[in-house]
Amino acid sequence: MIADMQTEIEAARGLTHYAAWLKDAHPTKVGASASKAKLYASEMVNRVVYKAGASTWAVGYSRETDVERMYATRG
Amino acid sequence: MGQRSSPSVEILLNDCVVPVENRLGEEGQGLKIALSALDGGRIGIAAQAVGLAQGALEETVKYAKQRKAFGKTSASFRRFSG
User: Fold this and answer.
1) FRET partner for B3 with CA separation of 20 to 30 A, picked from A30, B10, B49, B71?
2) Which residues pair with B48 in a beta bridge?
3) Which chain B residue lies closest to A6 (C-alpha atoms)?
């Protein structure tokens, strides 16, 4: 479970860093890479936060936890 | 998710005259410039998604190390760490 989360976060971080590097190095060619990073990272965060809630045996979904705040789009 | 610190707002410009010397970019390039700003925005969205996921992961690890079940921490169960 934690390995899945770490792997997906690292993949998204890599895509994001690459797009950010490309924006500095070749600003006119960043379009597709920025879209790929955004697509993967925003889908990934839903899976990871879902797992964070589930892996605390649903304690994570109760109001007082940070994970619940993350899941409830309250940032 | 995770966008509380990045609100989207409407901007209204009424009778707004901008002198030519204050124009950003070349005439006729406005759409291109606006769309390239969205490219940068996507990197920002990706970055905040990564940050939020990292925070959720750290909370999970903290919980797993502290929560006890059957006399062991939940971090020591194979389902959790594997």
Assistant:
1) A30
2) none
3) B57
